[in-house]
Amino acid sequence: MGQKTLEQKLAILSDAAKYDASCASSGTARRDSRDGKGLGSTEGSGICHAYAPDGRCISLLKILMTNFCIYDCAYCVNRVSSNVERARFSVDEVVTLTLEFYRRNYIEGLFLSSGIIRSPDTTMADMVRIARTLREEHNFRGYIHLKTIPDASPELIEEAGLYADRLSVNIELPTDASVRSYAPEKDPATIRKAMAQVRLKKEEHRDRSHTGKRPRRFAPAGQSTQMIVGADASDDLAILGNARRLYSSYGLKRVYYSSFSPIPDSSSALPLIRPPLQREHRLYQADWLLRFYGFELEELTAPAREGMLDLDIDPKLAWALANRARFPVDVNRAERETLLRVPGFGTKTVNRILTTRRFRTLRYDDVVRMGANMKQARPFVTLGGWTPGSLTDSADLRSRFAPPPEQLRLL
After folding, report:
1. What is the rounded CA–CA span in Å between residue 411 and residue 404?
2. Domain coordinates of the chain in residue numbers?
């Protein structure tokens, strides 16, 4: 087969990058303007959406530098034993693609990951060269996220943080035992050491020198990690517990849960535990409740028992249904911690309630205008113009929120 064109490489390596979690947008309708009607596309090669440190949604060129890999991780489609089409960008090709996409206003930054070629240091050195070339030779000021390689030298990881806005080191799987079973060439201790190094370097670069000079910024958007969900038998309690330890130990900005579906030629080795995308969604919701709503881990996993979240309804609603004795709450009197536990109330809504009720009594329509999802909240609150009566304790309350049963298909 002849040498691949840049467009062919882009098609292969942007598709291969979809397994790297990065807040990528998905699930929308497929639309493009190749028929000459309209502008833009929802499925351009390598384009994903992510969030900048200030909360802006930005478009990134999301690609692998190469999908060649010397490792044989059982859950990875790009593992050395996998029969997939391979491609590799040169350093100059990634730089060119990034700049050309940027000049055409397709993207605002780069998300770069890679398989391991020859050695971790060789691969990491090329990724650093890409970031350094963009910053120093082309004065590129867009967002850069680099997936760093734990086995690479500390010097390379430190240099990467001087050019990238965010670094991420994949934790891979929820437990060390699973990493040793399914990714035997990777060492959990080495992964955690690399994450600790990123945190320490970021802290070092906050301190001014004795002359008062401010050091260069190091990964100003922090670090994140990715955890494969569903490739092993870990329950949701174990997954979320590990995520909490990662947040506290390494100062992570985000743990990305990446749902696993068995690869055809390895499905017998890796069991599919639960519907992957729905489970991933519930884990993200629970993660958010643990970080910003004051919930404890056991509170969220207890309603469904056996350490698993309820797939049919969101974790906060599942908790409220299992703790109906705490409801309904008076929106005009309840404390912030109590209001945050009401299904349908987000942090912004609660802040608006607390601010407004200092001046007047809130009524049902007021809370609706504040952004509350009253379809969920109605059974759990009282306020001016509304009381749930017997609705809170009704036997069929869960069925009002759970999706209707579906007829299973044989094929």
Report:
1. 21
2. 6-21+42-301, 315-401
Locate tokens 């209707």: which residue? 404
Superfamily of domain 6-21+42-301: Aldolase class I (3.20.20.70)
Helix axes 236-250, 188-204, angle to 10 degrees: 40
β-sheet with 223-229: strand ranges across: 47-51, 57-64, 109-113, 143-147, 166-168, 223-229, 254-259
Question: What is each CA distance from 256 to 22, 134, 168, 223, 274, in whole angstroms?
Answer: 7, 27, 10, 11, 18
> Residue ranges of the alpha helices (H) in 275-378?
276-292, 297-301, 315-322, 336-339, 347-356, 364-369, 374-377
The per-residue DSSP string of 47-92 comes to EEEEE-TTS-EEEEEEEESB---S---TT-TTSTT------B--HH
Convert the pLDDT of each residue in 11-58 to its tens digit: 889 888 877 765 543 333 343 444 554 333 444 456 676 665 566 677
Q: Which residues pair with residue 254 across a beta bridge? A: 224
Q: Are 147 and 164 in contact (CB under 8 A)?
A: no
Cα–Cα distance list, 375 to 1, 39, 333, 397 (Å): 59, 37, 21, 12
Which amino acid is located at 379 in the chain?
A: P
Q: Do the Cβ atoms of 351 and 330 come closer than 8 Å?
A: no
CA distance linking residue 45 with residue 41, whole number of Å: 10
Reduce the DSSP state of residue 145 to 3 states and report it. strand
Structure tokens at 77: 């489609």
The pair of structure tokens assigned to 376 is: 């969920």
**Average pLDDT for 194-219:** 85
Q: What per-residue confidence (pLDDT) applies to 157?
A: 95
Distance CA 110, CA 47 (A): 9
Mean pLDDT of 258-278: 59
Q: List beta partners, residue 257.
A: 227
With a pLDDT cut of 70, the percent of the chain lying above it is 84
Q: Which long-range contacts (CB under 8 A, 24 or more apart) does 281-284 make?
A: 282/236, 282/309, 282/310, 282/311, 282/314, 282/315, 283/229, 283/236, 283/239, 283/240, 283/257, 283/309, 284/257
The larger pLDDT score, comparing residue 179 to residue 42, is at 179
Beta bridge partners of 47: 61
pLDDT at residue 23, rounded to an integer: 52
Model confidence pLDDT, tens digit, residues 148-162: 999 999 999 999 999
Classify residue 23 by burial, with Cβ atoms within 10 Å: 0-12, 13-18, 19+.
middle
Q: Which helix (H) or strand (E) element contains residue 176?
A: helix 176-182
